[in-house]
Specification:
Blueprint: H1 16-29, H2 40-69, E1 73-77, E2 81-84, H3 87-94, H4 97-106, H5 111-115, E3 121-123, H6 127-141, E4 146-151, E5 159-163, E6 166-170, E7 183-184, E8 190-194, E9 197-202, E10 208-213, E11 216-228, E12 235-245, H7 251-255, H8 259-271, H9 287-309, H10 318-321, E13 322-327, H11 334-345, H12 350-360, E14 361-364, E15 375-377, H13 378-384, H14 386-407, H15 412-418, E16 421-422, E17 428-430, H16 431-438, E18 441-444, H17 447-457, H18 459-464, E19 469-471, H19 478-484, H20 487-497, H21 518-543, E20 552-557, H22 566-582, E21 591-596, H23 604-621, E22 630-634, H24 640-646, E23 652-655, H25 667-673, E24 677-680, H26 686-693, E25 699-700, H27 705-714, H28 718-724, H29 726-734, H30 749-755, H31 764-783, H32 785-798, H33 804-816
Parallel strand pairs: 1-4, 1-13, 4-12, 13-14, 14-18, 18-19, 20-21, 20-23, 21-22, 23-24, 24-25
Antiparallel strand pairs: 2-3, 5-6, 7-11, 8-11, 9-10, 11-12, 15-17, 16-17
Helix pairs in contact: 1-2, 1-4, 2-3, 3-19, 6-33, 11-12, 11-14, 13-14, 21-32, 22-23, 22-29, 22-31, 28-29
Bound molecules: (1S)-1,5-anhydro-1-(2,5-dihydroxyphenyl)-D-glucitol.
(1S)-1,5-anhydro-1-(2,5-dihydroxyphenyl)-D-glucitol binds near residues 366, 474, 663, 664 and 666.
Pfam family, one: Phosphorylase
GO molecular function: glycogen phosphorylase activity; pyridoxal phosphate binding
Catalytic activity: [(1->4)-alpha-D-glucosyl](n) + phosphate = [(1->4)-alpha-D-glucosyl](n-1) + alpha-D-glucose 1-phosphate
């Protein structure tokens, strides 16, 4: 179906001709070239500069309005912001996408080619970082005063290449040739101390003070990225800190001929913001990572306090003016840092400083996985942040002696159990405990997850302070994940339910009444097919694999982790392949499985799974016996920009984590919004998606969380499943042969071993049969295209709840208590 022209969904701030003039002007004045000589890179930068004329004006108006009103603001501290590209999104939000596209067309340029010049801003690993990006989009859209704080990594998440089926990591240099969206703010540079020792001094008044003599200083240089709200009333700021050597130069070393040595200070300082740690959901435990965390927290707090002090002479109003959201435990060190500033630098007494901290910080928990719950070795803290360790000890002493003692008198075991300091061979600081002890709210990210946070993760803390625990179910921005990435469906909705849905996603509900309408179904499915054709072209271009857009597209895109169970999908593919080989008439519609996933570079089994997927793909895709009924694709370098092509093209959204392990998931929401049906477990936000779309429009399989717990408690034995299911046994044994790796038997055996000798910690074998059975039901349903269309429409129309604007309103209501500020 040809894309219908978008109705004006928001104010067009520039006409096509004005936009054309602006681009041409910037080609010359900003890029130093002209229409005849410019390459696409220059066209892109000139286009951004034209958009920025509007963006920067709104940015200034927003900061003026916030300063004038002196309004309460949220400060979202996050080590990750997975922004992706900004150009198309910003053009949509400013309301000039159509004008820009037409202006570029008049100038002989295709808007997509020009926007393809933009590298992804991949300053995050996966779900947590992308959530932060959606949240700042929603905060700006809803006109809430907010600042995102993070690190200006020189290198974002590695670029993934696949060589011989294996993942190879390459550096990501997203700003090598300049980035038109960021503004350096040297006027707001901060200095951050590190290392050294703490001295106890007594003043003339006889009062004791602590003085931290730092061993080193580094400089934090802020870069501001404008965050453009939809319809661009508000443009907030994402402030990212770059580390630099502090402003002194070791002239002695230099003059003595040690030029190289004098550079080492510089390169050590710059190492702090050099690269994003590529581990999703597992802590690195490395000194540099702790320094990264402290660096951005210290810079951000100084920035917050500087702004506060413009209008206030003491700290009595601080927690009324500022709320600080800790995105996971990564920014926890902000807590002892604020205590340190208030006590050591501002002269407050402990109780007053503590009261302020307790009213200022709130904490979001994103995972129950033990390996993701950060702990720092005490000796490392002592070395890098000696004063902070003292403060943590004192917070812990008061907590144990006052609150735990009051609740469980004389119970030393409980004190040991709840202590922020874990005893053992290496004493550790439990960062999540420090968060819960301090923060006025702790939230989980989906209804089920928030229950598990209370019941399983922090049960005693919940007993102490039940009122502190809340749920805020995650969401995704419909501007990026429907309006911008699926223009065709967006236009269809504009015509069906009007143009307010990018702000009020619940309005899509109005389309559900057409779920049975033949014409509507036809148009809806035609759009899906168009998106599948686009993806099929991309697959051929990137992977050299031909897939038919008429096949059912099963998509599994997320970070690679055992709990996400990509290997369950792989075993299932092997089972289908076997069935086809054994019975060429095996009744199954044509199937394509599409994977996209990065593995942490040090996660051996995850990398082995990628290799296995690629090796199985090689074999399956080139086996004439199965007559193209099954295809397997691994798309390299999965990232936001690729995701924007994959979500609109999926028929089946694979959400197959072990129940109880995926805190929420957000890809599940993006798929449903774009009309894919979920084949998933009762995990994370799948549970709430089911509530919204109805049991008859989702395919649930596998054990639920209680069953998982019960099986584990009873003593799970994967061998029972291996011997109990001949098909499962056959596919596992297949992995040990050289069928997929000719001449190299055993190359894929690590997967089998992890599932048998390794004990199968995520119950892949236990859920295998249920998965294959439910998959057959999906295949049957897909072949009834009318029925499928109806279910797909209902999915897309029913997931208004998962708008990140709703998440933000929940945060405001339950935690942040903000008021909107309308810039002029
Ligand atoms: O956070 C997402 C959730 C998802 C969860 C993810 C996450 C990370 O991406 C990284 C670390 C971490 O602790 C959790 O796995 O389920 O949707 C946003 O809340």
């Amino acid at each position: 179906m040809a894309a219908k022209k978008a109705k004006a969904t928001n104010t067009v701030a520039l006409s096509k001709d004005q936009f054309k003039d602006a681009i041409v002007k910037h080609l010359r004045s900003t890029c130093g070239t002209d229409e005849a000589r410019a390459n696409n890179q220059a066209w892109w930068k000139a286009t951004c500069a034209a958009v920025n004329e509007l963006v920067f004006e709104r940015l200034t108006e927003t900061s003026k309005a916030n300063a004038e009103k002196d309004s309460r603001a949220v400060h979202y501290l996050s080590l990750e912001f997975l922004m992706g590209r900004l150009t198309v999104n910003n053009m949509h939000n400013v309301g000039v996408f159509g004008a820009a596209r037409d202006a570029l067309a008049d100038l002989g340029k295709d808007v997509n080619d020009i926007c393809d010049e933009e590298p992804d801003m991949a300053l995050g690993n996966g779900g947590l970082g992308r959530l932060a990006a959606c949240f700042i989009d929603s905060l700006a859209t809803l006109n809430y005063p907010a600042v995102g704080y993070g690190i200006h990594y020189e290198h974002g998440l590695f670029r993934q290449e696949i060589q011989g089926g294996r993942q190879i990591e390459r550096p990501d240099s997203w700003r090598e040739y300049g980035n038109p969206w960021e503004i350096c703010r040297p006027e707001s540079i901060q200095e951050v101390p590190l290392y050294g020792y703490v001295e106890t001094v007594f003043g003339e008044d006889g009062k004791m003070r602590k003085v931290w003599h730092a061993g080193r200083q580094i400089k934090g240089v802020p870069w501001d990225i404008p965050v453009v709200g939809y319809e661009a009333k508000t443009v907030n700021v994402l402030r990212l800190w770059e580390s630099k050597a502090a402003d002194f130069f070791d002239w002695d070393v230099f003059n003595a001929g040690g030029y190289i040595d004098s550079q080492s200070e510089k390169s050590q300082a710059e190492a702090v913001s050099k690269v994003l740690y590529p581990n999703d959901e597992s802590e690195a435990g490395k000194e540099l990572r702790l320094i990264q965390q402290y660096f951005f927290c210290a810079c951000s707090l100084k920035d917050i306090i500087r702004r506060y002090k413009r209008n206030h002479s003491d700290f009595s109003q601080f927690s009324k003016q500022a709320v600080i959201q800790l995105n996971d435990t990564h920014p926890t060190v902000a807590i002892p840092e604020l205590m340190r500033i208030l006590i050591d630098e501002e002269g407050l007494v402990w109780d007053d400083a503590w009261a302020i901290c307790k009213e200022t910080f709130a904490y979001t928990n994103h995972t129950l996985l033990p390996e993701a719950l950060e702990k720092w070795a005490v000796y490392l803290f002592e070395k890098v942040l000696p004063r902070h360790l003292e403060i943590i000890y004192e917070i812990n002493r008061r907590f144990l002696e006052d609150e735990v003692e009051a609740k469980w008198p004389g119970n030393d075991e409980m004190k040991r159990h709840l202590s922020i300091i874990e005893e053992g061979e290496t004493r550790m600081v439990r960062m999540a405990f420090l968060c819960v002890v301090t923060c006025f709210k702790t939230n989980g990210v989906a209804a089920m997850h928030s229950e598990l946070v209370k019941e399983d993760l922090f049960p005693e803390f919940y007993e102490l302070w039940p009122e502190r625990f809340v749920n805020v179910t995650n969401g995704v921005t419909p501007r990026r994940w429907l309006l911008a990435c699926n223009e065709q469906l967006a236009n269809m909705y504009n015509e069906t339910v009007g143009t307010d849905w990018p702000l009020k996603l619940d309005e899509l509900k109005g389309a559900a009444k057409f779920a049975d309408d033949a014409k509507f179904q036809k148009n809806f499915m035609a759009i899906k097919r168009e998106k599948k054709v686009e993806l099929a072209d991309k697959i051929e271009e990137l992977c050299g694999i031909k897939v038919s857009p008429d096949a059912m597209f099963n998509v599994l895109i997320k970070r690679l982790h055992e709990y996400k169970r990509q290997h369950l999908a792989l075993l299932h593919i092997l089972a289908l392949y076997r069935r086809l080989l054994e019975n060429p008439d095996y009744d199954m519609g044509p199937q394509v499985f599409i994977f996209g996933s990065k593995a942490a570079p040090g996660y051996k089994l995850a990398k082995d799974i990628i290799y296995a997927i690629n090796k199985v793909a090689d074999k399956v895709n080139n086996d004439p016996r199965i007559k193209d009924k099954l295809k397997v694709v691994f798309m390299p370098n999965y990232r936001v920009t690729l995701a924007e092509k994959l979500f609109p093209a999926g028929d089946v959204s694979l959400q197959i984590s072990t129940a109880g392990y995926e805190a929420s998931g957000t890809g599940n929401m993006k798929f449903a919004l774009n009309g894919a049906l979920t084949l998933g477990t009762m995990d994370g936000a799948n549970v709430e998606i089911r509530e919204e779309v109805g049991d008859e429009n989702i395919f649930i399989f596998g054990m639920d969380c209680d069953e998982v717990k019960a099986l584990k408690a009873a003593g799970y034995n994967p061998w029972d499943y291996y011997y109990g299911n001949p098909e499962l046994k056959a596919v596992l044994d297949w992995l040990e042969t050289d069928f997929f790796t000719p001449g190299a038997p055993g190359e894929l055996a690590s997967i089998k071993h992890s599932l048998l000798e390794g004990g199968d910690p995520y119950l892949v074998l236990a859920d295998f049969e249920s998965f294959t059975t439910q998959y057959t039901a999906v295949d049957v349903a897909y072949r009834d295209q009318k029925k499928w269309a109806k279910m797909a429409i209902i999915n897309s129309a029913s997931v208004g709840k998962f708008n990140s604007d709703r998440s933000i309103e929940d945060y405001v209501d339950r935690i942040w208590k903000l008021e909107k500020v309308m810039p002029n």
